[in-house]
Amino acid sequence: MTIKYNNVYLDGVSTVVGPYEHNGPLTRRFDRYYDDMYMHEDSFEDAEIHLMKESVDILLDKLNKKKKEVNLFVAGDLQNQITSASFTAKDVKAPFIGIYSACATNGEGLILGANMIDKRLVNNTLVSVSSHNMVSERQFRNPTEYGAPRPESATFTATGGASSLLTNKKTEIKIESATLGRVIDMEQIDPNNMGACMAGAAIDTIYNHLKDSKRTPDYYDLIITGDLGKYGKEILIEYMKKDYNLDFTKNYNDCGVMLYDLKSQKEVGAGGSGPVCSALVLYGDIIPRMKNGELKKVLYVPTGALFNPTLVFQKKNILSIAHAISLEVVK
Amino acid sequence: MERKLYNKIVMNHKPKEHRMKNAIISFVVGGLMGILGHFLLNLYSYYLNISTSDAAVFMIITLIFLSSLFTALGFFDKLVNFCRCGLIIPISGFAHSMTSSAIEFKREGYVTGLGANIFKLAGTVILYGIVSAYIFGIIRYFVLGGI
């Protein structure tokens, strides 16, 4: 389903990151960073809440707005029962929609917010996401200090908080259209190869978006997927070529690959993941490049693997989803 | 979407495991652990003037203490990640798994967190260790006549 928007714009963005993201190639473009994983809090869970709250504060400071001016707050994260979002919502005090699409949460949030603005139900929507490497490690994998070897195809949950404010007042960057994704089952069961689980959803959503809007990949200056990582990116390029005969070698990249330097940061494996991964790259890298005229039309496709550790051990397939959002620079 | 084609492409883009390299690293590190253990064994039995079986207990305690300490200091997980089975299979791996669980769940309280979860990873080893010891004990008693 592709939705066209007439009056939805991106007012501002903010990013807060942890040490691994700060040491990556996009280091100078984030608003704030922390050297340690606790962010001056007592536990990793508190640290993640801190990241999301801080990203909201930075954004509102930048835009010179107060919390009570926010009409609607849409947020999600990876922590069990999206508690980072709830604790942030308690402070924001605006009406709150908590959402979950794993690593595609930011896409779902932007689409929900854009729909509410487009239908004139609200004037602005604050969209936030966060994730924390250590919180995900203990929730989905092993204790954080346990040094279990991981295969090269495994991805690394990004640490950070990211927020954006959508508005109906005209700004440089317009949310032009969006495609809501479907849940896809490619019969993958390996949680250490998320790229293979999610590439199917990304392919499905991108193909549907192009078909619905009657466009070719060349229409966009850049198409970015959420967190497929090095191997998922290769799968997408090859499948698009073989099945649909679409060339994705020129203007396509993946946020998980862009967030880290895969050569020097060996610990990240195949790349970054987590809801904040694609948000950090979009807000920290793509939006500034759109503002300075380097990019004009961008298709942002965050991808999420919908699974939980219990069902993985019960050998259930790992489902995936992807949403596509088309961003354009307007004069 | 064609699932067959997709799965074929997925198989083509799977990174290869460096089994040989991992095996060699594990072999060398495991061997060094053995040397260290034997060195400690001789050291204790010579200087403390105790029997080899007593010295073996001292040696195991030393290795457990060191791996727990290094886990708590925060760099042992990187070593284990590199040395793999060289450090996981010896007693150091067992101590590492327990200490890391203990550190991890301390925040949730000593009873509901640390106590309930300390055997999260090591529990498997203990359960199947006891079960197999029981089975081999029976075999030893009945088949080999208790030798």
For the CA atoms, what is the radius of gyration of chain A?
A: 18 Å
Structural class of chain A: alpha/beta
Rounded mean pLDDT score of chain B:
91
Q: Considering residues with a beta carbon less than 8 A from a beta carbon on another chain, report the largest interface and each chain's count.
A: A-B, 33 and 35 residues
| Whole-number mean pLDDT of chain A | 94
Taken in chain order, the helices and strands of chain A follow as EEHEHEHEHEHEEEEHEHEHEHEEHEE
The quaternary organization reads as heterodimer
User: β content of chain A, as a range?
Assistant: 15-25%
How many β strands of chain B by DSSP? 0
Q: What portion of the residues of chain B fall into strands of 2 or more residues? A: under 5%
Overall number of strands of chain A: 17
Unreliable residue runs of chain A: none
How much is the radius of gyration of chain B in Å?
Answer: 21 Å
Ends distance of chain A: 28 Å
Q: Which tags fit this structure?
A:
heterodimer; A: 331 residues; alpha/beta; twelve-stranded mixed sheet; 17 strands; B: 147 residues; mainly alpha; 8 helices; 0% strand; extended
Protein model, in words:
The complex is a heterodimer of chains A (331) and B (147). With 331 residues, chain A is α/β, with parallel strands linked by helices. In chain A, 35% of the residues lie in helices and 24% in strands. Chain A has ten helices and 17 strands. Chain A has helices at 19-22, 44-62, 83-92, 105-118, 133-140, 194-212, 229-244, 255-259, 275-291, 309-313, and strands at residues 2-4, 9-17, 32-33, 72-77, 96-98, 124-131, 156-157, 160-167, 173-179, 184-185, 222-225, 252-254, 272-273, 297-301, 303-306, 319-322, 324-329. In chain A, strands 1, 2, 3, 4, 5, 6, 8, 9, 11, 12, 14 and 17 form a twelve-stranded mixed beta sheet that branches. A three-stranded antiparallel beta sheet of chain A has the order 10-16-15. In chain A, helix 3 (83-92) links the parallel strand 4 and strand 5 (96-98). In chain A, helix 2 crosses helix 3 and helix 6 crosses helix 7 (229-244). Chain A is globular, with a radius of gyration of 18 Å. The mean pLDDT of chain A is 94. In chain B, helix 3 packs across helix 6 (91-105). With 147 residues, chain B is an all-alpha fold. Helices cover 80% and strands 0% of the residues of chain B. The mean pLDDT of chain B is 91.
